[in-house]
Amino acid sequence: MRILLFLSTVFSLLLASCSSPRPQGHAIDITFWYQHTQSRARAMEHLIQQFNQTNPWDIHVHGEFSGNYSETFSKMAAGIAGGVLPDLVVAYQTDADVYREAGALVNLSPFVTGPAGFSSQQLADFVPGFLTQDLSRRFSGERLGWPINRSAEVLYYNKDWLHRLGLSGPPSTWEEFAQDCRLATNKSRGTVGYEIRYDASNIFAQVISRGGSFSTPDQRAFNFSNPQVQATFRFLSQLYRDGFAAKVAEKYADQADFANQKVLFVMDSSSGIPFYEKAIKTSPLGHFAWGIASLPHSTPQPVLNIYGASISVIKSTPEHELAAWRFLRWMSEPTQQAAWVEASNYFPVRFSTAAQLTKYLAAHPQFEQAFSLLKTCRLQSEPVLPGYEQVRDAISSALNAVLEGAPIPLATSYLQKQAELFSGSRG
């Protein structure tokens, strides 16, 4: 468990003594801690090299793999205590709040609208929901990070299978979803309509599709006693008891089952599209038509759960902070955004990037379908509250308990108590 209060105290006591050793040899050398591995890491390093060779300010960025998100968080804590910090660090919004509590982050708002920032016309090109995610409610709306990519929770569906069932397209309501799952279930063939994942982001996506949330209306405390959370648990429990849905047996099993036409629907991250493409191409059953849609909904407009880490700038000197921002701004330009999309399959943060992705979108129609949802859906993100990483695990456990027969009011009451414990508050 992350002991946020302890880390915050360590940050506060030791920040003043921190100075980060930096590589020398250029007018300004900055270090970027990222979490990417394999092909994404290679693509990021290629982009960094491009920036280093072409920027007119003699800025040299040194990319460094800092581990996964949890390892990066721990490395930041150790770095502050030991005096070694980067200039740029990948951070989820909850982690950025912790760093800011220690006084370790720069408020990027002045950079965004300043001389080295963006015009109002350029800012209008950004996906609005992506930009608002990094405005910290705990710190008076300070911008504690900058997005260079995002993903969303979407519905994967087997188009050919739907047609065989006499259905013209994916379900738009949860009632239709349940009916489609019933039609797709065949015990003798071993098929079901849906495989239930325990991931908190997936559950949140279903809750907001019913008009709910994991937090109070002011988003300052957790709230798992709302009707939409209970309705989501009740719906999944009923679907499971009726035999129209199964549990995901192990990590990525739903991906394999979708490719092997054992399950009609899957809900997963949009960033997983290339992995589904590969699984379908290598399936012994051969290729089939499939698509991406928003989740069913009872709200007037479909809702997307958008998520992803941003890049934060560490407090250092004005020169290094500006240099770090210049790199982020460069990464936000459509040309670099297009290159990053093709390498990562994350969403770009600017709509105009699509003009440079014509061939990519034609070759990956499911990605284009997912990207188009950003214009037709209401965008919402998960709560940025202390302890959310631990709460995510509690959400998964609560759903599993419900599927195993636990009363829903008891499960959500326990979940609320766990959330209050982890967040250190009484909502």
Descriptive labels:
427 residues, alpha/beta, 2 domains, seven-stranded mixed β-sheet, four-stranded mixed β-sheet, 19 helices, 14% strand
Q: What profile does the largest beta sheet have?
A: 7 strands, mixed
Reading off the top of the CATH hierarchy, the class of the largest domain is best stated as Alpha Beta
State the CATH architecture of the largest domain: 3-Layer(aba) Sandwich
Helix amount, in percent? 40-55%
User: What structural class is derived from the secondary structure elements?
Assistant: alpha/beta
The amount of beta strand, in percent, is 5-15%
Q: How many individual β-strands?
A: 13
Indicate the low-confidence ranges by residue numbers.
Answer: 8-23
Distance between the termini: 21 Å
Overall outline: globular
Per CATH, the superfamily of the largest domain is Periplasmic binding protein-like II
Mean pLDDT: 94
Give Rg in angstroms.
Answer: 22 Å
* CATH third-level topology of the largest domain: D-Maltodextrin-Binding Protein, domain 2
Q: What is the count of structural domains?
A: 2
What's the tally of helices?
19
Give the gist of this structure:
This protein has 19 helices and 13 strands. It has 427 residues and is of the alpha/beta class. The chain has 2 domains: 189 residues, D-Maltodextrin-Binding Protein, domain 2 (3-Layer(aba) Sandwich), CATH 3.40.190; 196 residues, D-Maltodextrin-Binding Protein, domain 2 (3-Layer(aba) Sandwich).
